[in-house]
């Protein structure tokens, strides 16, 4: 079964050396994905002078999720800085994390209408006719009820408009939640227990 995963490669708040390493990590992921028979490409990236601040890679193919498990975590580069020769630090870190898929309500699909007796104020017409309409979007279960129009047809049209507005709101909310998670991931980096350690310049993975 074809799978699709999104990987975030981030130097977090790391210095230029981490950004240099982040570019190498992206290149490594693209190469290893191709070797595994997977399709991988940049979905987004924030380049900088020395490398990449962060990037999102989309990986597709059978076994993409399993491959991603081997890549996610912190990557460590052990090397004296090639950019600041007198700098004492020699450990640099980059994070690779799996981005959650935004669960967006499907705006397509069937809408079921149920008629019912209108309730509340409105005179004899409202109380004695089945002009009220409840519309249910079957893929998501989202529902609205409209009874303020005098005809069933008018209530159906209004219900469809309200349902579309409600689904659009839910999609925006889901996307905002996913965007906030991605933003947090860009600034978080666990430096312990790296999943991959690279040495020297040029990079050599061990």
From TrEMBL:
Pfam families: RF-1. One of its GO terms (molecular function) is translation release factor activity. Residues 117-133 form the Prokaryotic-type class I peptide chain release factors domain. InterPro entries: Pep_chain_release_fac_I (IPR000352), Pep_chain_release_fac_I_sf (IPR045853), PrfH (IPR017509). Residues 172-196 are annotated as: Disordered. Belongs to the prokaryotic/mitochondrial release factor family. This is Peptide chain release factor H. It comes from Conchiformibius kuhniae.
């Amino acid at each position: 079964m074809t799978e699709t995963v999104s990987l975030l490669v981030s130097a977090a708040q790391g210095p230029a050396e981490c950004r240099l390493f982040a570019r190498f990590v992206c290149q490594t992921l693209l190469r290893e994905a191709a070797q595994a028979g997977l399709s991988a490409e940049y979905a987004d990236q924030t380049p900088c002078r020395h490398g990449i601040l962060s990037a999102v890679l989309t990986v597709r193919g059978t076994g993409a999720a399993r491959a991603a498990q081997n890549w996610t975590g912190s990557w460590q580069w052990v090397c004296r800085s090639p950019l600041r020769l007198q700098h004492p630090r020699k450990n640099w870190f980059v994070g690779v994390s799996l981005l959650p898929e935004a669960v967006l309500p499907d705006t397509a699909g069937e809408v079921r209408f149920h008629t019912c007796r209108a309730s509340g104020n409105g005179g004899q017409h409202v109380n004695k006719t089945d002009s009220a309409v409840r519309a249910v979007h079957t893929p998501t279960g989202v529902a609205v009820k409209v009874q303020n129009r005098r005809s069933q047809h008018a209530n159906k049209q209004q219900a469809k408009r309200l349902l579309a507005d409600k689904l659009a709101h839910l999609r925006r909310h889901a996307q905002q939640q996913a965007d906030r998670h991605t933003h947090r991931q860009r600034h978080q980096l666990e430096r312990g227990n790296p999943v991959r350690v690279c040495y020297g310049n040029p990079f050599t993975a061990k």
